[in-house]
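Justification of computing resources. Each target in the renewal requires a structure prediction run like the one illustrated here; the chain below, 461 residues long, is used simply to show the kind of job we budget for.
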Amino acid sequence: MTGQKLTSRRALLGWGMAGAGAAALAACGSGSGSTASSPASSGSASPTPMPDVPSPADTTRVTSAEEAAALVEWQARQAADAGSYGIAGALIRNDTGEVLMHLPNKVVQRIDQGAQATAGATFTYDPTAHGERQLVYWYYANRDKLKLPEASQLTVVTSLDPCAMCTGSLLTAGLNAGVVAMDTFSGINYTGKGTFEDLPDGPRQQAVATFGYYAVKGGRAFQGSDSVVFAKDELQQATFEGCETIYQDSANTVRASRKQTGIEPSSLSDPATDPAAAPVVAAYKQAYPGAFSLKLADFQRPDAALKSLLESLRAGTAGASNAVAFVDPFGNLVSAAANDPGTSPVATALMAVLQGYSITRFNLVNDPATSAITQKTITSPKYGTFVWLDAPDPTATTTIEDLGAYGSAVEGKLPDQTATTNFQFYNPPANGTVDQLRAVIAALPPLYSQLIAINPQQVQS
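Resulting structure tokens:
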């Protein structure tokens, strides 16, 4: 970001969002293709040291917005110290202030058992493991067992404005969202207007009714819905700025490290034909039994056999409406899944594919017996092809979730060789049109619409 003047955190207190977003986009160097140069939400001309954040006196109950914000600030600092993005969330009962669960961002984790050359380094663990998304999954996993309140009676307080994936998850679940700091590049309220014009009509109305941005003492006024917990409270400026600074500083570090985890395919060997990669293939088959059962002649041209496989996956999953596959740059089918409404409405096919592919990759890199061969055969999904059976529904909140998850997975600007082929589909959406889907993408925050430039294409017969 050298040579670029970024908007100060103090300006954010006055909702200087449009200017901050423009400055951030300029700072990212959209033609560079470097994820390391992607902007943080905002910043100052000189880096601000990441604040020390003491442990809250009580992590089980909060009595004000300030206490809730301090809790997620503390958890965000833990995420940053662990090597991931400094963001966190807490699921809170609106009526009592009870903290049901609080979770940090876990997109990136440290290699603690890998080869000596990589021990202690960070590596992508799960690109979908944002704090808010994890809390939504936790809610569905525990709702019946713990007899949790209805989603409308709960608030996810988050240290940073939710990205598209987390927004889609929150809206699908019906949870309220109370926001501390802003993100003018990938946050769903990146314009700062609170009108959510980056969302289609249905999801936009839901966001207006369930998202709230806490007032900051001496700064911004409250914006949004009073359905969020502690809607009438103010935050201290130090807490607001702390959440923003922790994210900014950690994001710069994480983006630089993630840039190094995706080796170009020309420097790799095909795991399906490299005898040394047998443990890698076995691990992926354990995650998805159909892994490496199909090989495309051209990884960028999905064929009829893959379509048939996706149709079978959808037909074989109760209530499923779609299926997604990931094909590596050698043409190997590595992962595929149908959405699983029996688990939860947010368990989309893409989420299952991303989690299976990425967590398996991390575990292999984290194992000294397979670390080296994994890094020689498996790379970032931005070099492969994602294939949907049906294009995502442009009216659905789960599509916002999927578009955000896809953006998190590809880690920035797509390589030239996959920019027009990384996101493909066989059939038009079951609801709406492909043009409507592209319009939804064009309206999303700059990370998705401009830097990554998500570009869905129909499979060519």
